[in-house]
Write a structure and sequence with these properties.
heterotrimer; A mainly alpha (321); B mainly alpha (294); C alpha/beta (427); A: mainly alpha; globular; B: two-stranded antiparallel ribbon; 2 strands
Amino acid sequence: MINLGILRSSVGWLVLALAISIVLPLVVGVFWVHVLTEILIMGLFATSFNLLFGYMGQLSFGQAAYYGVGAYTTALMITKASIPLPLCMVASVLMAGLWALIFGYFCVRLTGIYFAILTMAFGQLVFYIIFQWYSFTGGDNGIQGIPAPLLLQDAYAYYYFTLALVIAALIVMRFITNSPFGYTMRAIRDNSDRTRFIGINIRRYMLINFVIAGMFAGLAGSLWAPFNRSIAPDLANWAHSGIPVFMAVIGGPLGFFGPLVGSVVYTFLSAFVTGFTEYWPIVIGIIIIFIVLFLPGGILGTFQQKTMPVGTNYPEKKETS
Amino acid sequence: MTESQLFSQFLSGVSRGMILFFISSGLTLIFGVMNILNFAHASFWLVGAYFTWTFWKIFYSPTFGLWLSIPLAALTMAGIGWIIEVLLIRRVYNRTLSEQLLLTYALVLIIGDVIKLTWGVEDRIVARPPMVDGFVNLFGAPFPTYYIFVITLGGFVAWGLWWLLHKTKFGRTVRASVFSREMVGALGIPVHRIYTGVFALSLFTAGLAGGVQAPISSITLGMDMSIIVECFAVVVIGGFGSLTGALVGSLIVGLVYAFAILVIPKMALVLIFVVTAIVLIVRPWGLFGTPMRA
Amino acid sequence: MKRIKGSKMGGIEMIILLAIVFLFPFPVQAAEPYHLGVALGFTGTGALYSRDGKNAIEMAVEEINKEGGFLGKHPIKLFMRDDQTKPDIGVREAKDLILREKVKCVLSAYSSAVGLAVEDVCYEYKVLHIPAISNTEAMTVDNYSPYTYQVVPNTYMQAMGQVIGISKYAKQKGWKTFVSIGSDYEWGHSTVNYFVDNMKKTYPEFKLTKQYWPRLGETEFSSYITAIMGDKPDFVYAALASKDNVAWMKQAKPYGFFEKFPYACLISVTEMLEMMDELPRGVIGETRAPFFAHMDIPMMANFVKNYRAKYNQYPSDWAVMEYDAVYVLKQGIEKAKSIDVEKVKNALKGMTVNTTRGKLYFRKIDNMLNCQSYIGIIADDPKYPFPIYKDLLIVTGEESWRPESEIPAVREKSGLAKKRKPEELKF
């Protein structure tokens, strides 16, 4: 029998992933370095989304609003006032957190489908405001010519910078999900009534989680703006909010690294497939249906199930409400 | 603004609302009975519009072509709905909300490309039959005859659905299964066939809506993405699962929009979103929905 | 040793062989192909225009490759990418074309937002860029790049063209008030603003009384139609996105709108072909490159003939302009006698080129071609199965573009100096 023990060693996988992420850019062409940077940024965005989805059990269809706020804050600060990038990033995180606080205050009063639609409505609100405020945001033309700082203009430099920042953010998020706070989230997901009975203020905890998720989404957005050199309002609309959802589902929302795996698959596929067909939506649509119907735990979830020895208490997916 | 101008504006709001009702009625029906929010509903509407165009082209008769194409398109959509329910939707009844949403969202993407592959990228134009082209003067305000047709048909559809749900055995079984699926199953009634029927019915209305829409504007790719958001607003305001709510919600959205563009032109759509958000915060189950549907 | 005949080359055979090799230029090794990138929105609202552009580009490339490619020795290799009408996808696809496929020039885009984003990518990686469908003025003025050459009349030129054409009618018929309706996005706003501002200067008695801004992608215009009919203006000016305009015209017609109110908007050949009988006759249209206006020019006549033979339809404005884009590139390469990007870029500066629309030149300060805008009244024509313009007024580039003196102020406002090198901004 194959000893599956080594496959279960998460540390082993992490070390391997780290090694690959450091070495890979040096062997592939510079175009793929751009793709890898995109994978990292979107992976961060998807992981922040998963704080709400996998860990708290609520589907938000409006996380792109905070991502967009982060991207626009950084872009505007750099292009209009030439403020150095680190300061812009801090500002982006705070702005995104602020809006997550304002919108989240209302969203956490709801659950299930109502939560999903309200987050979507707020997301569209942000999108329309950015779209219509031409004098400030450039409207649907977006903002062009966002320069990266001099040291990071090279694609490789920006990649390693992003890698370092994303790893740091992931460590912080991992810390949060494995803390008592994180376990409270899981309790809210699994049985919110019981959690309320033991005296936890559900709404306050959900709001805190919502703000944290928004802040990390804002961080991802602020990394995106100087990387892409230009941004446009549809970074904030509901279709863009769907991307971290896809990534989390493809990779597996119950694992911490699920969304990141999902980002690798989704981003790579979309870069690759659009190279030879314009029918990318049908490809990703079929993949999603396949995963929903046949691989409900996502790639990571299915993999973990197959490599768990018999009798391991694998967390069951609970009905969310 | 004179009285007749206000009345004109009112009428345009009503017709806008009616078109939304056509689509939202099916959406709310699916949610009410099967508890699934069908993201792809507007996409099916668009397919219905394209089918209407195809049939209209085949019949080649400017006077009668449309009257034949619309019911044909609606029936085609009902058939497609039957197939999709059996193959796909049925599998996610017992799944989580997010899986259901993702499945229907994936359908949106797939249908968009299928439309592109089948009907190409050109806009499609369907001409109104001479019978309903032109306008009448109501209280001094001109009003296109076609919209009178739309409003009348909308009224029929609303009445027809009500009759179906309250006066037929099928309808009573549907309402019973909303209340208690287990009980209906225990009585020996095949619940899954009910669901298939409901899904096919709601796609019938979507196809009908598409057919009615076809002569109003051109039929183009991407129309579904913009209107689905308004439909969600309608269903939220009116209440999930309530047909009365869909009717009232559609009229509210249509009228708010019609008058908002006179007063706060750039903010009309934002206003709809704000109203939607307020309803969700204050009374999530909408005007006519029931709280237990949460 | 006995010399076997023919097995060893004597001196005289050697000389003859060398002479042949040097006097007859065999392609001893294949010359470098020219990689040409195309990033258009094949998915999204601009899919139709993008497809037309693609057809025209492929036809142009085929024609040029029949003669061996650029300079007769660099066959063109086309790389097409779908920017999905989204700026960040556009950026990624442009990077793909430049970094992976090593293209020397990118032809883009339907959406102005995508075009602007791609302009910056091409500037950063020093690759030529010819946007032949999108026409925001920002591409050449606010966000000017020395690598971008524009062959479409920009939003300012188009609006100015309408001012010139419409003020003529307005003065003739004594119009006093007008109402504007524009799609609520940047193109709609800037077009209406340019029109209103310049009309004020040309015919100040003509007053704007009301403005309407339906959202982009609106399909239900009845509320706007009734509102405008209530306003009873002498004239209605529209800057609606093409698809929305089609829906608007279709819905306004049964109200008798076009009989009651003179109306002007953009009507491109695409709408003429699509709408046919539904297009209201008598409206004042404007477009960017209608083929029927230049059938006397051999290049246009040949293009139309070949395009119809190959694709079984008349070429739209977008096809004409993308075709011109490829041939402009060709002429730049011929003047530079090289396919090197920098040399071609310098050759194109201020260059006069032959296009299907005539002999035109690029203005140095913004790399804008002095292409015309076309205004006329929609009417039927016996030559074509669809309505075209009658009373055609052709407004030249010089009459309609922003005066050079105003450009530095606009660039100051957009902060262009921060994004470009100072020597690139000296003209």
